[in-house]
């Protein structure tokens, strides 16, 4: 009996230490999973709203967030009317303020400016001016928020706008348009590669200013796709393709032009709250339905050869 008791006492210290080892292993495992959890949280912090260039990401932010934005889209080069030099250069700048009254729901108010110079362009009058070009309100709701566990993001945005200048011709007008935009994005490789896609329908109706008071009716269909990857901390690069169809009439009545534009995208986040997005696009294919231009390359009745977008934003 004494021998058995001595043996039990000799073995019991080892048994007492075994739970400590298990606890240490459990703690180590917990720390490891916590590290992964921290990485996932960092991945979720990538805001996709302005990540893709011309294409808009689905992120809408959290309650109480605010943002100031300067967004300039430059449109260059259209079909020349005759011999001699020609110029078509339009800069549309938007100044906006955005806030979130609730999680995944944002309101944005914007004012627009139009600066243009057009000379010796087919079917357009020569013009050179800069002016205030109306205002808009954007309402966005995000139905799905992408993450490492659930990579799909989905949002719908409505953009009612009043404009004072016809976008192509540059004539004074009073026009109301309403863009409806479906926004989808996905983490293709979590924390490294993102895909974004937009489908948009934008009807516009109004009347030109002046003695004639000629009516204006148009509509645009858009399908865009972008793929970007993170090459360094806060730096994202990629490419984008956009397919657009421009119509006469508010319900896609008569096709006038269709184009495919392709180009690079750069998104740089300088700090957690300050960022810059630059995107360039050029027509690689297009056509006009007007018989006078049927055999000419590209679709230049409704669209331009080149676009450049520069967005600078600050969140607070």
List the helices and strands and how they pair.
Layout (H helix, E strand, L loop, with lengths): L1 H43 L21 E11 L10 E16 L2 E15 L7 E18 L7 E14 L6 E18 L3 E16 L6 E18 L2 E14 L5 E16 L4 E15 L17 E10 L1
Antiparallel strand pairs: 1-2, 1-12, 2-3, 3-4, 4-5, 5-6, 6-7, 7-8, 8-9, 9-10, 10-11, 11-12
Organism: Methylorubrum podarium
Protein name: Phosphate-selective porin O and P
Question: Any overview of this molecule?
Answer:
By secondary structure, the chain is mostly beta strands. It folds into two domains: 1-44; 45-315, Porin, CATH 2.40.160. It has one helix at 2-44, and strands at residues 66-76, 87-102, 105-119, 127-144, 152-165, 172-189, 193-208, 215-232, 235-248, 254-269, 274-288, 306-315. It has a twelve-stranded antiparallel barrel with strand order 1-2-3-4-5-6-7-8-9-10-11-12. The longest helix is centred in the first third of the chain and has 43 residues, at 2-44. The chain is globular, with a radius of gyration of 28 Å. The N and C termini lie far apart (77 Å).
Main features:
globular; 316 residues; Phosphate-selective porin O and P; 1 helix; 14% helix; Porin; 2 domains; mainly beta
Count of DSSP helices? 1
CATH topology of the largest domain: Porin
- SS class: mainly beta
Q: How large is the share of residues in beta strands?
A: over 45%
Provide the number of structural domains. Answer: 2
How much helix, percentage-wise, in residues? Answer: 10-25%
């Amino acid at each position: 009996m004494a021998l058995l008791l001595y043996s039990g006492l000799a073995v019991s210290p080892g048994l007492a230490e075994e739970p400590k080892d298990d606890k240490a292993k459990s703690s180590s495992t917990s720390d490891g999973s916590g590290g992964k959890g921290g990485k996932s949280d960092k991945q979720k912090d990538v805001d996709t709203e302005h990540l893709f260039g011309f294409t808009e990401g689905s992120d809408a932010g959290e309650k109480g967030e605010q943002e100031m934005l300067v967004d300039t889209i430059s449109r260059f080069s259209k079909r020349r009317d005759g011999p001699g030099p020609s110029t078509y250069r339009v800069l549309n700048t938007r100044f906006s303020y955005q806030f979130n009254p609730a999680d995944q729901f944002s309101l944005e108010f914007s004012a627009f400016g139009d600066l243009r110079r057009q000379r010796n362009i087919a079917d357009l009058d020569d013009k050179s001016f800069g002016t205030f070009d109306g205002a808009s309100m954007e309402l966005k709701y995000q139905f799905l928020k992408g993450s490492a566990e659930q990579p799909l993001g989905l949002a719908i945005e409505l953009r009612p706008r009043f404009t004072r200048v016809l976008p192509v011709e540059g004539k004074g007008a009073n026009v109301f348009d309403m863009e409806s935009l479906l926004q989808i994005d996905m983490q293709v490789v979590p924390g490294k590669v993102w895909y974004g896609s937009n489908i948009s329908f934008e009807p516009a109706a109004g009347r030109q200013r002046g003695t004639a008071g000629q009516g204006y009716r148009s509509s645009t269909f858009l399908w865009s796709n972008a793929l970007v990857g993170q090459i360094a901390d806060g730096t994202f690069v990629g490419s984008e393709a956009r397919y657009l169809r421009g119509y006469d009439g508010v319900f896609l009545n008569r096709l006038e032009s269709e184009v495919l534009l392709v180009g690079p995208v750069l998104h740089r986040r300088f700090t957690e709250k300050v960022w810059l997005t630059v995107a360039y696009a050029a027509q690689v294919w297009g056509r006009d339905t007007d018989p006078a231009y049927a055999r000419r390359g590209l679709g230049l009745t409704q669209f331009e050869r080149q676009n450049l977008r520069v967005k600078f934003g600050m969140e607070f």
